[in-house]
Amino acid sequence: MTSSTSTSSLWRAWTPITQQAGSLRIVEARGNRVRDAEDNWYLDGVSGVLNASCGHGHPRLIEAANQQLQKLVHYDPMVSSHDPAETLASRLAAILPGELNETCLVNSGSEATEAALRIALQYWHNIGEGRNRVITFEAGYHGTTHLAQQLSGLPFTVSEWSAPFPIDRVALPASPRALRTEEGADTLIALFAQAIEAGPPAAAVMVEPLLGLGGCVVLPNGFLARLRQLCDQHGTLLILDEVFCGFGRTGRMFGFEHEGITPDIVTMSKGISGGYLPLAAVTVTSPIKATFTREPIARGLRYGHTTGGHAVASAVGNAVLDVMADEKLVENSATQGALLLDELRKLESSPLVTDVRGLGLVIAIEADSPESAAAIGNAAVRSGVMVRHERGVIRIAPPLTITADETTEMIQKISDAVDVAA
Ligand code: PLP
């Protein structure tokens, strides 16, 4: 079932050195399935790294990339602009609420976090208040560059270096299951209020609408709306990280739409290009951008990369928006996600399963131990459905293009895997 290579010069990140060789090698992907080097096909239950939201080998996305490659690959984003990036920025302004009109394009979710933090901190500098404290979730994940990594308290992100500004992290006070109540929202808000009031005025609160890599923790109803109010009371910027949740993953275009709020800054990646090319974005409100004309040396944002807003990636980003609208992928995410969650919840009767939770096409099966999660996850992969298990949680997040038949197949295979593991 796995394809091994005895030696490899490729150093893959996040993979223990001792496990680099002998790992799965994927050679092809079509629609919602991937094939390994030994010719086994799997139903893609994880959308690659949650980014293949339009499925694999989509002809319209390939065509958009091809056409742009032939016209203009890219050009210096510091001194010039081009149509694909201009169009993508204006389309994001149209689908984002309120005054979220100003987009900076980058290449990865981590870069989007980096840009968001720099914009937020520079904003406070621009208006003559030196706020620099950031508050976030201990179990949040915002990326792996130096600043981004400092925001997370997850064990796998721990680094030897400390943050160049104060960060206060709020730990989850209860299990994900216990949190999904009205009292859960009260407790969480009280903890954020405490964190905000415990120090100098906070520059920003940065959270995900659903804690993705922290275990697919669905936050209690009303929490984000109350967090918005709390930030407003303290003049603190609310940065929402939509890298995991954005572009339909939770059954709405953006995760924050479930609570009808507007953040001050929003970061996006993964689904923005369907994983076809590296692309990410940070969008801020017009009043935030306006302060950058007051920036002392008037150089605007001092953050950016050579390939930021790459023309081919941006062209694919525009095509993703078309495909999502034409194929009604946000709606499909809500429909198939509800079906998956309803059926997989039945697994809570297994002694190995302690919680099944989800929103749209993000589902987590929490097992009674990391060993049980590994046994279930490995059995699912052996049966032909690709899922991820990490720290006791099996993560299921298929492409938004999943069909009703594939959803049924996935439910069957995962349910069988729980039986096999028990
Ligand atoms: N933010 C969130 C919520 C994520 O889930 C991730 C990656 O999984 C990132 C940021 C970092 O994105 P990238 O891996 O593209 O740097």
From TrEMBL:
InterPro entries per the UniProt record, alphabetical: Aminotrans_3, Aminotrans_3_PPA_site, PyrdxlP-dep_Trfase, PyrdxlP-dep_Trfase_major, PyrdxlP-dep_Trfase_small
Q: Name one Pfam family in it.
A: Aminotran_3
This protein's cofactor list reads:
pyridoxal 5'-phosphate
Q: Which GO terms describe its molecular function?
A: pyridoxal phosphate binding; transaminase activity
Q: Does the keyword Metal-binding apply?
A: no
Specify whether Transferase is a keyword of the entry: yes
Instruction: Give the matching PROSITE patterns.
Output: AA_TRANSFER_CLASS_3 (PS00600)
Under CDD domains, the record lists:
OAT_like
Check the record and name the SUPFAM superfamilies matching this protein. Answer: PLP-dependent transferases
Family recorded in the similarity comment: Belongs to the class-III pyridoxal-phosphate-dependent aminotransferase family.
Enumerate the PANTHER family for this protein.
Answer: AMINOTRANSFERASE, AMINOTRANSFERASE CLASS-III
Q: What is this protein called?
A: Adenosylmethionine-8-amino-7-oxononanoate aminotransferase
Originating organism: Micromonospora pallida
